[in-house]
Amino acid sequence: MKFRGGGGATRRSWAALAALCACFFMVMLDSTIVTVAIPAMLTDLDATLNQVIWVNSVYLLANTVPLLLTGRLGDRYGPKRVLIVGLVLFLGASLWCALATTAASLIAARAVQGLGAAAMTPQTLTFITRLFPAERRGVPIAVWGAVAGVATITGPVVGGLLVENGGWEWIFLLNLPIGVAGLAMAVLLLPDWRPGGRIRFDTLGAVLASVGLAALVFGLQNAQHYHWGTIVGPIGVVHVVGIGLLLIAAFVLWQRKTKDEPLVPLGLFANPTFSYANLTYGALGFATTGMFLPLVIYVQSVLGLGPVASSVLCAPMAGAAGLAAIVAGRGMRFVNGKTMIMTGLAALAVGTGLIAVFAEPDADPMDLVPGLIVAGLGIGLVYSPLTAAATYGLPPHLVGAASGVFNTSRQVGGVLGSASTGLLLQVGLSFSVPEAARQYAKVLPPRYADEFVRRITDAAQTASQFDDKGPQVPSDWSPSIAERVRELATDAYDLGFTNAAKATLVLPVVVLVLGIVCAAGMRTPTGNAKNLDYPRERATP
Fold first, then answer.
1. Phi, psi (5° rounding) for residue 232?
2. What tens digit of pLDDT does each residue of 38-69 get?
3. Whether pLDDT at 528 is above 70
4. Calpha distance 413→86 (Å, rounded)
5. Do the Cβ atoms of 19 and 183 come closer than 8 Å?
6. At what angle do helices 49-64 and 103-131 cross, to 10 degrees?
7. What is the Cβ-side half-sphere exposure of residue 260, based on CA atoms within 13 angstroms?
8. How far apart, in whole angstroms, are the C-alpha atoms of residue 226 and residue 66?
9. Burial class for 200, CB neighbours closer than 10 Å (0-12, 13-18, 19+)
């Protein structure tokens, strides 16, 4: 069956949208669901903090690097075929993740899972622009955007329930029933649209973008792990980051030069709204990914909440996002989308700031709820109008490339957010935990103080910082001193981590402010209750 865009929406179109949303929900859920399982993974897999951060970052990276290419693959082979291949790959990798027994194996499985997600994501937006005519696309895009927003912040909630009751493996096993249902729906409901002509691939562009982004993220993510020094032989962290930046610059220059099916048709950016929408989406991805890492570890390791309790704490945030997404979807008919986008970004920044302000070692978890609700409202307000702005008047022959670019922007922001906040958190711990240890060491006899500081500093770099037993105490210390040292070690770590987390949360706020500036330059569609003000497209011949 060949499908050609431009016709009116039918019941089959809405059923197909349900299949797309099931696939997209699963992809977005997995971008944040791992964060709540970090403490459990650290102990069960005997992993370091850097390794477990990579479990999340490698998924984002593998989901980001191929997006430009997979968007074009959909243009060439048909979005249904590419989506189904990606979904099968994603499900197989999810099972591998659940069966992993080492951090290295889990990281490898998450990389494959990310590749599957990269194959699916651009096709979902491509299908929406084909299934629904431009003048009726507002509601489907609102649904798609709402799925993205709700899934992103539902991840920690669902993850906490699964980790507490079944173990961290179940956050990956959850994908299997959702994915199988999505696969059946995709096979039965999605039209097998195929392009009429052949599309050539920009191989050099794909290599430059992939290697450049991978090098940049690898350098940022591992900078503190290698102490900003040598990685292997004469190659150091600075060299890897520099190579990544140079390759990305070469990619941009190549896209300007090549005329033969570039990976990123620069004509897309002739429309300033598309450019600003991508920058804004990147800022949103950075902030939503970056805020969860320090937040989840803080509430579990410092406040002592279990996975279920931390899930309950995040539940108001998810509920607020869902409510705001509904309001945004309906409000797009009456309110300028730019107003909602800027308001949502500002609310997310304010909510993140409130969380940072009220985070203390002895804080009542309920003190964080107002900030979480405000942040959730902000996330829910942004996705739908931002997606509508980015797809405003896209030429049909550039839909695949545009959806690949747009989703890449979010993922690039997300992977840089994960890498940057992970780096800042590790750097912060290396300073704040030893400083806190020195403060608490003053109450110990001098003969124990130096050893106390050294062991706390070592524990801050390993999984033992999350162990309830605390750092090991020399056997020749008296039981009373050993018990006192363990109590002080817990207090020192709690203070040190809290200070590091508070400082780390400043970065997403700064990026969100930049996102608001970018959003101010967009021209967004508005309309009456029946139709959004989209320009009409001609049917694909």
1. -155, 130
2. 778 877 888 777 777 778 778 877 887 787 77
3. no
4. 22
5. no
6. 30
7. 7
8. 27
9. exposed
Name, in order, each residue with C-beta under 8 angstroms of 540's C-beta and a sequence gap of 6 or more.
4, 5, 6, 130, 396, 397
Q: Which residue has the tokens 């980001």?
A: 64
Cα–Cα distance for residue pair 83/187, rounded to 1 Å: 10
- Category of 429 on φ-ψ map: left (φ > 0), alpha (ψ -120 to 50) or beta: alpha
pLDDT per residue as tens digits for the range 242-301: 999 999 999 888 888 876 677 777 777 877 888 899 999 999 989 988 888 788 888 888
CA distance 379 to 318: 9
**Which residues on neighbouring strands pair with residue 236, listed in sequence order?**
230
Q: Whose structure tokens read 């607020």? A: 320
Q: Does an H or E element contain 380, and which?
A: helix 369-390
pLDDT tens for 187-220 read 888 888 776 556 667 778 888 888 888 888 778 7
411 Ramachandran zone, left/alpha/beta (phi>0; psi -120 to 50) = alpha
Residue 471's pLDDT band, with cuts at 50, 70 and 90, is low
